[in-house]
Amino acid sequence: MPKDEKTGLGSGLDALFGPDLTSIIEDIQNSAAGDDSTYRTSLNIADIHTNPYQPRRIFDQDKLNELAQSIKEHGVFTPILVRPSFDGYQLIAGERRLRAAQLAGNDTIPAIVMNFTDDQMMEISLLENVQREDLTAIEEASAYRQLIDNLHYTQEELGKRLGKSREHISNTLRLLKLPTHVQELISQGKLTMGQARPLITVEDEKQAEELADRIITEGLSVRRVEKLIRNLNKPLTRHLPYVNDSATAAVERNLQHQLQTRVKISRNAITISYSDVEDLNRILEIIGYNRE
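RESULT FIELD:
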């Protein structure tokens, strides 16, 4: 396929991704300046392969059909982003546009071709999807986890990159501790992040799943879910045979709710669980610990 237009793509990328991701792409472009590696073109859809780092797993078919109808009438205004591969091109960003163009019966689609490393491709793919804020909470959490694990972001750095608070990043990541069934309910839109988050403190997976189903069946509000979890006397006290004072059990439940993690009060000791350093810092912030 012939190269149609070399970049600077500068201002056009703002429309594609917004200023944060634009700066990343421009850095990549600048590092590749003079090698003729970045250009606009029109590609055969059959030559484009899916993105292994795509965090979105659920695509709204009605919205895809609407976009396909728009493409039939007006064409594809915003090019997709791809990189060359050994047997064609690998999609980096724009899967909804690609799918809709296929539904519209198009054989070709406008594209921007750039040379990305695997790490750069992962970063752009995940950040672009998260920045558009149309992922499910579980897809968002999985994207955060990939960025932290593979690109070594801290939660604070990731929050700054995305314009989100570290607390939001931390709370979203903690959804991945939920049982698979509960995560699926969130992904299907049957359970909101607010409804699901109190279930993180439920140690018994089966009980957490049963509670999730009850929340949906009874249409419980976030406030009612939080109250329900606080009032789970039996599951909490059966693990605390040393607790004879109901006030102690209530303190334990309240601490779990406030800290959004497991808390165990044993004789002469309080144990607060955390998953990693970022989670520890989150808890320290909540209890007002001053590291200075």
